[in-house]
Amino acid sequence: MILVANGTPVLVGRMMGERLDSPVDLGMTLADGNRLFGPSKTWRGFLSAILVTTLVGMIGGHSPDIGLAVGLMSMIGDLISSFVKRRLSLNPSEMFTGMDQIPESLLPALALKTVLDLSWLDVVCVVGLFVLLNRLLSIALFKLNIRSHPH
């Protein structure tokens, strides 16, 4: 489900173009001169990731709360990584291995650790597997001209 949450904004953005792409940060710039999150973090992507992840979770036999939690926490993790990248003056969508994947996989795993009875090893495996699969999926989406560059 974390891969679904991560990939949905890219696919929905590709399908919708610039429609409904209002930035989450509403264009806010901080004292460092950089945007809070950047133009690529949109309400369309944030909300579509949560909705689609909830639906996919339900199709997979989970309660809506599980899919909702995965989608929401993954998107919050994505915003955290964008915030950090802006503070480091990295360009929106610029690759930063680890920072691009760890928060958006770690937060949902931690949020659901007790509910899903995950061990600490399970959490580490979820994050590690997500980092690997995210990289492979990003390359595939780039080769299919869905992403402008791989992560």
UniProtKB/TrEMBL annotation:
Pfam families documented for this protein: CarS-like
Protein name: Uncharacterized protein
Taxonomy of the source species: Eukaryota, Metazoa, Ecdysozoa, Arthropoda, Crustacea
